[in-house]
Each structure stands twice: as C-alpha cells, then as structure tokens.
C-alpha cells in the first residue's frame, strides 16, 4: 500500500538553490589599505588648466539621496575628525539644502585642497518644487554664484544679484555627480533584467535631461549609488563585499539602463551620517576616497583635453611658418610680442 501511495503522490522536488548574493569574482579590483596614498594624491592634486584654481564638482539628485552626507563624509575623512553633521546632513523627505552652497576642503594639517563641491536643492518630480533644471544648467555654466537661494517657482535670471553674467572657466562645473540611493531599484534573480526602477517617471526624465545638458557642455558626469549597506546584508556586514555583491551589481545595471550611464561610471558608496567617526572603518573610507579620486580624475582629464584643444587651435591660427620661426628664434618671438 505504501508503494501505491508514493506512486500517486511522489515526493516533491527539492527547492532550487538560492541565488548567491556574492559573486565569485568582483567586478572592480579595489586596492585596499591605500588611504594615506589616496589622501596624498588629493593633497598634491592641481587642475590641468592654467585658468582653473579649483576643480569644481556639482552634486545633484533626488531628495534624501545623500548628497550632503557624501560631502560631509569626504570632509570628515580628509580632516580625519568628526565634524558637525547638523550643518549639512538632514533627515526626512524634504530638501535640507535651500541655497547653492560650495564646500571647500582641507587636509589633516589644515592645508587647502584644490577642489570644491557644490551642493544644490534636491530634485523633485513636481514642476513647482525642488531645484529647477534651468538652475542646474546655469550652475554647470557658471552663471549662479555661491549662496544663491533657490526659488522652486522660477529659475535664476540675469536680474538676480547672485547671477554671474560673465563666468570664467574657473566658475564652471568640471564634473557632474548624480547621487541616487540604491533603494531606487529592486533586484532579484540571476539576471539584471529582473530589476525594477522605483524612481518616478518625472524624476527620471529630469535626471536624463540634466545629463543631456552636461553632454552638450562636454562636462563629464557620473552616478554615486548611496546607501548600499542598507541594500545588501553582506555589504552591511563588510563594506569590502560591495564590489562582489550581486544585489548591488544588479542595481547598478538597472541604474545604467534607466539613465543611460555605463556601469563603469556608477560608484557604490556608504556615507557617514554623523553616527560614526572617520577612521573607525578604514575600508568604508577607502571606498569614498577612491570614488572621489576617480571623479576628480574625470574632471581633470576633461580640462587637460580642453587645454590641448586650445593649444592646437592657437598653433593652427599662428601658421606653421610663423610657429617654426618663433620656436627656433626666441628673440624673434620676444620682439614680436612687444609690438
């Protein structure tokens, strides 16, 4: 009788093996224990264009994404001390940044560093709230001065006292950073196609629009994917798992699909929020420092290409014969400039 029972009611198949949350091979070969070397590189960093005194980075993104927390984290790590988070970091579903604020940075010895980061009001889906796309474009072009108070109803115009009608290359943004929380995307299964974008359509359109403006202006841009420690338990346990987490990798792919930005230009990070002191988690510091260094490299590479293009145009305008004469006869070049 037992045989007949098993024939009609076979034992259920064993459940499939769960998808491993960690990949066998990391997609990014991070070099750990190099924090001091990264800080040293930032201390000796100089813009690769003579008209620029500070590399200017602009951060933008949805409300609560972690723009101000990223700036706070970088500042705390570079100075190697806990700073007052209440000055920058806010909580809740509202934008804590009401004015265009440019943060300058110092190293542990108090020496100023040659880059600044601009923070703006958060992006919102509604047209009558959040930062205006026109204001973001004006900042990219260098038209809006520091401490401009954002008006969610109307964009900054030439009549405003904080409007810079004649911006220099030093006033313009040299890299755009779009800060987006990892929980904007859900991920499951082996394939990245099984992800869902939780950002509303209007917010995605705004982000895509500002990205196209940056492309038109030839300004490099990247995405910082924040709150990755809340998105994956392995990353929360050890930030070193961030580059081998299948969940984070899928969220990066979903972000890439939604915004059109390559995954190589999407950087997963975990910010400080004032609850922990920098230096207590050197691996967390390493991820943030590595991300900042790559962003500044992008900005500097863009300036270097601009300088090379300007030099080539000057050489072409001068003409080959005149250029050879000046190169071979310094006296000729000096007398020529005095005329």
Model description:
It is a single chain. This protein has 339 residues and is α/β, with parallel strands linked by helices. It has a single domain (23-338), classed as P-loop containing nucleotide triphosphate hydrolases (Rossmann fold), CATH 3.40.50. It is built from 11 helices and 8 strands. It is globular and about 75 Å long.
Output the keywords:
globular; 339 residues; 8 strands; two-stranded antiparallel ribbon; Rossmann fold; alpha/beta
Sum this structure up briefly.
This protein has 339 residues and is an alpha/beta fold.
CATH class group = Alpha Beta
Per DSSP E runs of 2 or more residues, the count of β-strands stands at: 8
The coarse overall form would be globular
**Strand order within the widest sheet?**
2-3-1-4-7-8
Q: Helical stretch count?
A: 11
CATH architecture: 3-Layer(aba) Sandwich
Q: Helical content, roughly? A: 25-40%
Rounded to an integer, what's the Rg over CA atoms? 25 Å
SSE topology:
Elements: H1 2-8, H2 35-43, E1 55-60, H3 67-79, E2 101-106, E3 112-119, H4 133-141, E4 175-181, E5 185-186, E6 196-197, H5 201-216, E7 221-226, H6 228-231, H7 233-237, H8 246-259, E8 266-268, H9 282-318, H10 320-328, H11 330-338
Helix pairs in contact: 2-9, 3-9, 4-5, 10-11
Region (Disordered): 303-339
Protein name: Interferon-induced protein 44-like
Organism: Alosa alosa
